[in-house]
Amino acid sequence: MPAVYRHDHVVTLDETNLVGNVYFAHYLHWQGHCREFFLAEHAPGVLKSLRTGDFVMVTVSCSMDFYAECFALDEVGVEMTLRATSGNRIEMGFEFRRGATLAARGTQTVACMRRADGGVLPAGIPAELAHALADFS
Predict the structure, then answer these.
(1) Which residues contact 43 (CB under 8 A, 6 or more apart)?
(2) Is the pTM of this model over 0.85?
(3) Which residues pair with 21 in a beta bridge?
(4) Arithmetic mean of pLDDT, 88-104
(5) Which domains does the chain possess?
(6) What is the rounded CA–CA span in Å between residue 74 and residue 9?
(7) What single string gives the DSSP state of each residue in 33-94?
């Protein structure tokens, strides 16, 4: 079984819709939060490079399947696993749990890129990130 990185989130009222449940797009937003906290804890140099350098991580695909609703003030555990790496791409899996209940499951694939000549070009996965991901494969 692959190692899991977990980020806990408490749902706020502004993340719900008129019906009172979490608006679907927030789950994708929380995937990004989980990924960023992983970088902060396990590859801080990569996070710094994203903020100040020429390195970028571009989301090339994402998906989400929903199974149960979440509401304001629910505690949601966002669990991230590494599904695969290939070339400059990293595919992650996400599970969103409200207690023992699986609320949603998603995927996200990012491509590592470098800014150059007014655009972006494929770049290898930085060594620090590759090392951090190895612990989760």
Answers:
(1) 126, 128, 129, 131, 132
(2) yes
(3) 71
(4) 98
(5) 5-135 (3.10.129.10)
(6) 8
(7) HHHHHHHHHH-HHHHHHHHHSSEEEEEEEEEEEE-S--BTT-EEEEEEEEEEEETTEEEEEE
